Write a sequence for this structure.
């Protein structure tokens, strides 16, 4: 679906790729996070997104700096360590017509913010939640995070004797309806997953392995570029198709292609690779993640999809006008209403 | 067990046997077991006396427990309208076998005890009038068993007390009707027991004590309401659109009331959809995060909590101060760090909330003292939050929040809904520029835009990192300092926006008294008592921090100013000393905390001790 960057060419709303950029990145050269920021820019450009309709949110850490580096025309909030989900919940309830891309890291999500992460998902707040997962604390110079490999040795931290938290498994168990894993070195897959996530009705979780070139990029680390390039095993060739666009079936035999329609009519296209993986089954998704862990497989792609759950805004039965835009008359009941309440005492 | 640790007050000792009736001037304590539904019975007595036109105040002294521990309900009846707690209760309803010995010991000479006559070995006292009423026959008659029989016991003492105090049964009926929201079937089933107990008492008890209630006309047109219900109603009429919270005593009933009123009052008349959202968060860390998110996006967002919740909210509150996000935080204060005394009252969060947040932080605090102010501050707090773009703390307390207080019905808010300096896309177009943190007006308050504003210049990036006037990351020393100095200018602007103090000054006052919140009632009564001994005093009740010049001027008018508060360390006293360092020596702290609401007796004794210490 994607083409490469079309420099200087305007999209349907008259913006160029450059218009979607943010401040220059202050992360390390080669940091996986920069690549992800670039894909966000590309995706927003390709999807003709009006920047004011989307919030960029984050917690604290290297990953959480990155929203400053994309969608400079969007409102943003770089919040507290591990506490972006609650802020996102409030912001998107305050104005439920907005969408959001939240960027977190493995420390921000897997350690300090694990509770808020899971409760965000449990409430099914409609947003894209990206975990830029590198298994290490960068800004504090190299401590293990909760997603680091068991038995791994780092210069600063020594040997990690604890098993990793699997962000995708946690998300599925918490009730997420869109759970994907990708690799920042696989730009095309990141983009396609991001597009689908933006069209998902609910919390969409993208666990993107995003190498830290400063502290955790030895080829032996499962969070390194070398390992990713060598071992990435996509479950399928993932594609997303906008609503009302013809899809080409090519010459695939029946059973080679799964197509799933999202609530807005857009389509997810899963082209079979080595195994025939069905992301529609929760227990199977957990099983596949566990076997991947046991066999040290780096599976990527859409791991779980179920769009049936209502969002928090839906179950709250919110009025069409955002809470933030209610008129004074809507905010304050009438004199008569107060008189009636007082009469009850 | 906290009912009275001291010798009874002199004024409470009547002659015995009763020469003179004592009318509308006494206090009752009802001792029951927590979780047995005695609150219905206690509120029925309170409301019935109130509906006889007699000023009352009820205070529930309850344990942190669902069922089984002792609980005491204090009802003060005062023809003079005093509503502070009394240390001495002349009348005891002894319906908790586990505490009956101590409860009877605590009665003053001349006191009265109504006890459950089913029990053996109830102690007697020669100087106390003892009345027994059996509960078993009424339970047998009702045919109810198990837990429900507790409810019968409660109504038995209501019927007996109605007889003893000469409360008309029609008033008990009215009171139960309010309690059960006009569901006659429930009223009737309770009244049947009340009537039967009343009849039994009139046939079997010969009243010899002097205490009784006589109708007055001091409460007509008024109502009884808890501070938390009033605060919730105030928030609804103040334009709350989002609330996030985590359950904690004693704030939970505030959110319960929001959940009660919002569906009735804040649905779109055409679609029936909600113009509000209330989210029960996973903890207070998340509750305040949601509130800040909603406030940032432009909702009128609030939370309600108590001390331990404030501890968890500290980090986000500090970010709210620095990123300048409107939020309203009701702190229904309880006692102590950690769990402390979770069902007792105090004023211990003043210093903590005033400075809450790391780095340099100064927060605006409102101090409601009455249910009417809880209602009024519903609007005030949201308006200040929007005008000042900062978290506003409202410090209520358990006594105000959870107990029923007399009040005139609330009047419709005169203060319009104020949204502060918000720039729309059209505003930016007209103005040609927008910088989120630029002090355009010189009052420290910059203009903000709300997420979703489509103007190309509208978007900005909220953050806890150092930033310049354009909300862009900056580590430049001058950017940091300029921003922090602007925030202090903003705090100075707040001095002129917050509700000013209330004064009650006497020309020949020997000294001044400063207090805030619900200690007002004990102080009012104490000042009357002092005046009777020839000591004139002046009083200023602070309604907000930061202080303004009126506070300075009050302190300047008196050689000595006592700062009276319900905490150990004199927290407001400390703040005032730093605010008026030139007059710090005039300020004398009178602080005390044992979990119970302040009494006039304590205030009088503390002031007299301080005054005599000065003269020595």
């Amino acid at each position: 679906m994607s083409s490469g960057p079309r420099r200087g060419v305007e999209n349907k709303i008259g913006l160029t790729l450059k218009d979607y950029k943010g401040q220059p990145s202050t992360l390390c050269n080669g940091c996986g996070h920069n690549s992800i920021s670039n894909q966000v820019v590309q995706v927003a450009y390709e999807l003709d997104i009006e920047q004011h309709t989307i919030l960029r949110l984050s917690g604290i850490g290297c990953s959480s700096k990155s929203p400053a580096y994309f969608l400079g025309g969007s409102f943003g909030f770089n919040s507290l360590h591990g506490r972006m989900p609650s802020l996102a919940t409030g912001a998107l309830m305050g104005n439920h017509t907005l969408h959001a891309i939240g960027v977190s890291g493995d420390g921000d999500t897997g350690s300090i913010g694990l509770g808020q992460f899971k409760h965000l998902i449990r409430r099914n707040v409609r947003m894209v939640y990206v975990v830029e997962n590198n298994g290490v604390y960068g800004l504090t110079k190299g401590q293990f995070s909760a997603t680091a490999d068991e038995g791994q040795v780092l210069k600063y931290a020594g040997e990690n004797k604890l098993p990793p938290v699997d962000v995708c498994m946690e998300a599925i168990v918490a009730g997420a309806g869109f759970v994907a894993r990708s690799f920042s070195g696989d730009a095309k897959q990141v983009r396609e997953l991001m597009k689908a996530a933006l069209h998902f009705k609910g919390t969409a979780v993208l666990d993107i392995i995003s190498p830290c070139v400063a502290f955790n990029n030895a080829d032996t680390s499962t969070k390194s570029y070398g390992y990713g390039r060598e071992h990435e095993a996509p479950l399928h060739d993932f594609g997303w198709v906008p609503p009302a666009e013809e899809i080409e079936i090519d010459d695939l035999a029946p059973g080679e292609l799964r197509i799933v329609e999202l609530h807005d009519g857009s389509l997810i296209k899963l082209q079979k690779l080595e195994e025939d993986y069905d992301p529609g089954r929760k227990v199977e998704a957990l099983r596949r993640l566990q076997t991947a862990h046991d066999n040290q497989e780096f599976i990527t792609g859409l791991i779980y999809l179920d769009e049936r759950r209502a969002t928090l805004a839906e179950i709250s039965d919110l009025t069409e006008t955002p809470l933030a835009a209610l008129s004074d008359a809507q905010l304050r009941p009438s004199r008569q209403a107060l008189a009636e309440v007082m009469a009850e005492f | 067990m906290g009912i009275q640790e001291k010798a009874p007050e002199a004024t409470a000792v009547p002659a015995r046997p009763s020469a003179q009736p004592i009318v509308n001037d006494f206090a009752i304590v009802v001792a029951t077991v927590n979780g047995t539904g005695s609150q219905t019975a206690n509120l029925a007595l309170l409301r019935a006396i109130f509906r006889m036109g007699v000023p009352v105040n009820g205070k529930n002294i309850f344990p942190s427990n669902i069922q089984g521990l002792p609980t005491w309900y204090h009802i003060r009846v005062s023809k003079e309208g005093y509503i502070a707690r009394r240390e001495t209760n002349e009348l005891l309803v002894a319906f908790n076998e586990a505490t009956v010995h101590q409860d009877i010991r605590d009665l003053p000479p001349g006191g009265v005890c109504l006890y459950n006559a089913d029990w053996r070995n109830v102690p007697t006292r020669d100087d106390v009038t003892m009345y027994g009423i059996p509960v078993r026959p009424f339970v047998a008659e009702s045919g109810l068993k198990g837990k429900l029989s507790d409810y019968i016991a409660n109504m038995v003492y209501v019927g007996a007390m109605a007889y003893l105090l000469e409360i008309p049964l029609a008033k008990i009926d009215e009171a139960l009707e309010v309690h059960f929201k006009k569901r006659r079937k429930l009223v009737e089933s309770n009244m049947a027991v009340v009537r039967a107990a009343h009849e039994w008492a009139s046939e079997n008890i010969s009243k010899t004590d002097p205490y009784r209630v006589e109708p007055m006309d001091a409460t007509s047109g008024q109502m009884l309401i808890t501070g938390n219900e009033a605060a919730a109603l105030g928030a609804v009429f103040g334009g709350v659109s989002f609330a996030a919270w985590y359950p904690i005593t004693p704030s939970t009933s505030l959110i319960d009331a929001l959940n009660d009123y919002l569906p009735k009052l804040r649905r779109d008349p055409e679609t029936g959809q909600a113009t509000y959202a209330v989210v029960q968060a996973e903890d207070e860390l998340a509750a305040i995060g949601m509130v800040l998110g909603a406030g940032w996006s432009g909702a009128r967002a609030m939370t309600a909590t108590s001390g331990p919740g404030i501890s968890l909210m500290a980090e986000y509150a500090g970010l709210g101060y620095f990123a300048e996000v409107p939020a309203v935080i009701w702190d229904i204060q309880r006692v102590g760090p950690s769990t402390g005394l979770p069902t007792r009252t105090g004023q211990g969060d003043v210093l903590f909330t005033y400075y809450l947040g790391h780095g340099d932080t100064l927060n605006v605090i409102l101090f409601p003292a009455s249910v009417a102010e809880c209602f009024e501050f519903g609007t005030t707090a949201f308006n200040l939050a929007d005008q000042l773009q900062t978290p506003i703390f409202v410090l209520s307390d358990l006594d105000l929040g959870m107990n029923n207080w007399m009040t005139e019905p609330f009047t419709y808010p005169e203060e319009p809904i104020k949204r502060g300096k918000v720039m729309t896309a059209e505003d930016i177009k007209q103005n040609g520029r927008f910088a989120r943190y630029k002090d355009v007006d010189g009052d420290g308050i910059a203009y903000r835009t709300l997420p979703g504003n489509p103007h190309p210049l509208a978007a900005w990036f909220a953050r806890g990192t150092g930033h310049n006037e354009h909300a862009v990351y900056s580590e430049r020393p001058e950017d940091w300092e300029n921003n922090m100095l602007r925030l202090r200018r903003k705090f100075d602007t707040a001095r002129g926006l917050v509700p000013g103090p209330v004064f009650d000054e006497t020309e020949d006052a020997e000294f001044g008294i400063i207090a805030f919140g619900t200690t007002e009632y004990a102080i009012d009564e104490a000042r009357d008592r002092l005046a009777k001994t020839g000591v004139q005093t002046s009083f200023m009740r602070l309604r907000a921090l930061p202080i303004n010049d009126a506070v300075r001027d009050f302190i300047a008018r008196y050689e000595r100013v006592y700062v009276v508060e319900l905490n150990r360390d004199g927290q407001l006293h400390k703040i005032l000393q730093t605010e008026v360092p030139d007059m710090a020596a005039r300020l004398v702290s009178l602080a005390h905390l044992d979990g119970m609401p302040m009494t006039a007796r304590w205030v009088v004794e503390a002031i007299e001790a301080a005054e005599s210490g000065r003269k020595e």
Summary: Chain A has one domain: 17-315. The mean pLDDT of chain A is 94. Chain A touches chain B through 59 residues (CB under 8 Å).
